[in-house]
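Deliverable D2.4 — example input (structure tokens):
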């Protein structure tokens, strides 16, 4: 099964080119823009993630279908209410997935790929993990709600396409009501910041309401410094994809107690024995 988002890839690539050219003809000293090696790495990570996604999506839809058969009722795809429920349910699932992947190191090892660039542009949106299986448990409840699996996959693709457009410095703050309800480039720039005030903030996908509700929202204020608190320092796609898994494994092997080993895997990134979460 070909992931639905693949059909948007030509448009993604075209828009990356357009945005890169915009920096060529309309430079802005306050924006980081593009750097060739960084962009090639991001595009390579995106291509690799889509190759891996083909067999994984096939396995995913089988698992969704199995759970769907256990649902006490099946919602109608012809009902607008089903699609509205799906929008909110999918976005809450994404918020939960995203927050967990920032707070649990073994999950962060997958998601850290997306935060590893020192730039913030449309190509950064394509810098995706090569271990997508960590997200499966967060969407299975939607199938148990009686939402058809094909609808879940479509909404996931819609969310990913929407989020592509969040990765830009070329768009400032939008109309205030939009900023209040929806995730925007301004909100997402905060999420990609390594500034202390911006760490673990603005997890939303399409909506920003979950962050406001669960108190993880932070407005854009001071200039955002992109990347990680400890940057990976390489453009090698293999190292970008797996460097945190390697670091976690080394920490687990060096730990003297099982409790510490569990902490290195299931504690937050940066956890050390005796540290507070």
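Example output (designed residues):
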């Amino acid at each position: 099964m070909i992931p639905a988002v693949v059909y948007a890839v030509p448009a993604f690539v075209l828009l990356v080119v357009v945005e890169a050219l915009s920096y060529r003809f309309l430079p802005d000293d306050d924006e980081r823009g593009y750097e060739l090696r960084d962009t090639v790495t991001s595009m390579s990570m995106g291509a690799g993630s889509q190759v891996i996604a083909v067999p994984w999506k096939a396995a995913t839809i089988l698992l969704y279908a199995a759970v769907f058969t256990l649902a006490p009722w099946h919602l109608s795809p012809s009902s607008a209410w089903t699609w509205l429920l799906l929008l909110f349910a999918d976005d809450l699932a994404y918020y939960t997935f995203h927050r967990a992947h920032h707070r649990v190191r073994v999950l962060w090892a997958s998601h850290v790929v997306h935060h590893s660039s020192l730039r913030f542009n449309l190509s950064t949106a394509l810098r995706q993990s090569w271990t997508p299986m960590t997200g499966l448990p967060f969407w299975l409840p939607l199938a148990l709600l009686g939402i058809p699996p094909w609808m879940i996959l479509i909404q996931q693709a819609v969310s990913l396409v929407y989020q592509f457009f969040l990765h830009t410095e070329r768009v400032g703050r939008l109309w205030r009501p939009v900023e209040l309800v929806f995730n925007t480039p301004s909100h997402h720039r905060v999420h990609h910041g390594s500034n202390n005030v911006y760490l673990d903030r603005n997890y939303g996908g399409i909506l920003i309401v979950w962050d406001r509700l669960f108190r993880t929202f932070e407005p854009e204020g001071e200039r955002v410094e992109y990347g990680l608190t400890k940057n990976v320092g390489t453009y090698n796609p293999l190292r970008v994809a797996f460097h945190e898994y390697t670091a976690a494994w080394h920490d687990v092997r060096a730990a003297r107690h099982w409790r510490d080993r569990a902490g290195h895997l299931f504690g937050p990134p940066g956890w050390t024995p005796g540290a507070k979460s």
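Residues 35-266 form one domain.
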